[in-house]
Amino acid sequence: MWDAVYNQQPLNTFLPCGYVILSRRQKASMISLHTRLAGILGVGFSLVVVCSGMSVAEQSETAGGWRKYEANPVLGGSLGTCFDVALLKKSSIYRMWFSWRPKKAIALVESTNGINWSQPEIVLGPNGSTDWEEEVNRPVLVRRDDGYHMWYTGQARKQSWIGYARSANGRTWQRVSTKPAISPDAPWEKVALMCPHVIWDESARVFRMWYSGGEQYEPDAIGYATSPDGIAWTKSGANPIFKSDPSIGWERYKVTACQVEPRDGWYLMFYIGFRDIDHAQIGVARSRDGISNWERLPANPIIRPGENKWDHDACYKPFAIFDGAKWLLWYNGRHGGVEQIGLAFHNGLDLGFK
């Protein structure tokens, strides 16, 4: 009996031309086969995943056990372009800080289920008194006993920098300085640093930042830096610590905009891969130290555009939370010039690494 890849159920649905199925005996070589074929055939190639209750069309939009929320998008519509989010969960409330392009600002919304959101409230807007914050966007939040810490992207003059602000409640923010916290100064960083992701490492007593650097319209790779206070940062001499792999079709052009989640002795990285400047998908990798020896998930890309849907052209900037039973992953999808926020789920903690 033939089985679908990554699944133990018999194949019992029609598969269109261009998909590959493997027998149980062939599964031992599945991972290496997937990697080789994906590199040769590029983003259009997919090994089929047959999951109970999922149609073939749904399967082609996700992999590795992920499924999109059927009523996506969950934020956008009349708000205009909403993109690049960061979330925290406190008790039963999800709080999302999102980039609101029409307002050139960062706004806050709240939800009890991650799907239905409150009306947005702008919490950090452009700053006319500096020369680098004509627009602010792409936030990340850390909550500690001393309050909320936000790093964000400031943009002006076709360049980007990363700024830092603090808050007692996540709503009212005070910028720490009129200067950026971290700026592009290495050759690979070119004119833009953006998309920070920061965690507080209690054992080392430092903030750890993963950021994207390179071009202003979609940076090129991911760098790493540390700071004892969130203000003065030391960049890694190994930067960029995560780059595109030209042998993997779907991410051969760029990788960027990551979230890093410490979990069970690993650092999980959710990231964007670009096959070209206009088309992006979402993947996962892991590393023991969060810096080196990154191992990509064989099922990548896990979130893929839906043909003629709201995320037809690209799936950008993932942010995932594990709620104890399942992963929830928010991302911004683009169709034409409009970006909106969608949601995907994955049951259980195990993402499929071996």
Task: Describe what you observe in this structure.
- Helices cover 5% and strands 43% of the residues.
- It is globular.
- Residues 1-41 and 43-53 have low confidence and may be disordered.
- Strands 1-20-19-18 form a four-stranded antiparallel sheet.
- Strand 2 (82-90) and strand 3 (93-100) form a beta hairpin.
- The protein has two domains: 1-61, no CATH class; 66-347, 5 Propeller (Tachylectin-2, Chain A).
- It has two helices and 20 strands.
- It is mainly β and 354 residues long.
> What is the CATH class of the largest domain?
Mainly Beta
* CATH third-tier fold name of the largest domain: Tachylectin-2, Chain A
- CATH architecture assignment of the largest domain: 5 Propeller
- For the report, how would you describe the main beta sheet? 4 strands, antiparallel
Structural class: mainly beta
How much of the sequence lies in strands comes to 35-45%
The residue fraction in helices comes out at: under 10%
Ranges with pLDDT <50 over ≥5 residues?
Answer: 1-41, 43-53
What does the average pLDDT come to?
Answer: 88
Termini separation: 24 Å
Helix/strand order, N-terminal first: HHEEEEEEEEEEEEEEEEEEEE
